[in-house]
Design goal:
The structure holds 2 protein chains of 2 kinds. Chain A is mostly helical. Chain A has helices at residues 4-23, 27-52, 58-88. Chain A contains 3 helices and no strands. Helices cover 64% and strands 0% of the residues of chain B. Chain B is built from 7 helices and no strands. Chain B has helices at residues 3-24, 28-48, 52-76, 90-114, 126-135, 138-159, 199-205. In chain B, α2 (28-48) runs antiparallel to α3 (52-76). Classes of the chains: A mainly alpha, B mainly alpha.
Chain lengths: 101, 206
């Protein structure tokens, strides 16, 4: 297979995730867009691992690592969003400006 | 076009459409459900590339756990189910321009750098990946387990505070026995049996 096919898929997912990250106002939806970008990164890692074809399977191993770190990040992110919601009664990221200025 | 090419094209169309619906859907629950489709398409791409274990881990971790966690987040924050408030025009046009420019730059660079490169699609069995993971990458793997544990503990600590504690978190001086897990709210603090009301720190929050 041509290497450009999966890389284009990853670029598409990454760009769509970037759009959601910038345009969404609900913090949970921002986390969802972040998930799309992380998925694009794992596709890139697996693809480059397949291109390199090394015996250590570094691409797939690091894709698994990114997946685990993404799961940890979602857990902490949801906890922070719940805390913000409890204190401010809003999940709009524009309202979370306590540490601004 | 060979079978893997058709498969990759299929998951690209499917995943791209689902991802677009994730970021544009007005209904937040629909966004979460479209995210399931997008992540399943990513798992399909992994299967096409021969990364079998990564594909099933993607299905288990993301579709199984992360999306459920996100749905819980949506429900616990009582997000408005249904159409939500729209941002202003600049709040949509600017991200659109940024993402389209990003996609153009990425695709240009990809086609310049990898237009002749081909991937040899070899199936990597979970046994081979597990052997690499537990022998060559044993130490990073254990560090990752530690990181996950710490992240879980941190998430519990962050989200644990009770509702009546006020907008500013107080210094954490509660005793760490089981009774402290059910912290009295300021309204019923004087009626807790067996425990004297911690007067000093309660006055701050009330």
């Amino acid at each position: 297979m041509e290497a450009v096919y999966p890389l284009t898929f990853a670029a598409l997912l990454f760009s769509i995730g970037a759009y959601g990250l910038l345009s969404r106002r609900n913090a949970v939806l921002v986390l969802m867009s972040l998930e799309l970008m992380l998925a694009a990164v794992t596709i890139n890692l697996v693809t480059f691992g397949a291109i390199a074809g090394d015996g250590l399977l570094t691409g797939q191993v690091f894709a698994l690592f990114v997946m685990a770190i993404g799961a940890a990040e979602i857990g902490v992110g949801i906890a922070i969003i719940l805390l913000i919601y409890r204190n401010r009664a809003s999940v709009n990221i524009d309202d979370a400006d306590l540490m601004r200025y | 076009m060979t079978v893997p090419d058709v498969m990759m094209l299929f998951v690209t169309v499917l995943g791209g459409t689902a991802a677009l619906l994730v970021v544009t859907s007005r209904n937040v629950v629909h966004s979460a459900l479209y995210l399931v489709v997008a992540l399943l398409a990513v798992a399909g791409a992994f299967l096409t590339l021969g990364a079998e274990f990564v594909a099933w881990a993607q299905v288990l971790v993301y579709v199984g756990a992360v999306v459920v966690l996100l749905l819980f987040g949506l429900m616990l924050t009582r997000a408005p189910i249904g159409p939500m408030a729209q941002g202003n025009e600049l709040g949509r046009a600017l991200p659109l321009a940024v993402s389209i420019a990003l996609f153009a730059v990425l695709v240009t660079l990809i086609f310049q750098s990898f237009s002749g490169t081909t991937i040899s699609l070899t199936h990597v069995s979970p046994a081979a990946l597990g052997e690499v993971l537990y022998v060559a990458f044993a130490l990073p793997f254990m560090a990752l387990g530690l990181l996950l544990t710490l992240a879980l503990i941190g998430a519990v600590v962050i989200a644990r505070r009770e509702e009546g504690e006020g907008p500013l978190p107080e210094p954490d001086e509660e005793p760490s026995d089981a009774a402290a897990l059910r912290e009295p709210t300021p309204s019923d603090v004087s009626t807790v049996p067996g425990r004297p009301a911690p007067s000093g720190e309660r006055e701050v929050s009330a």
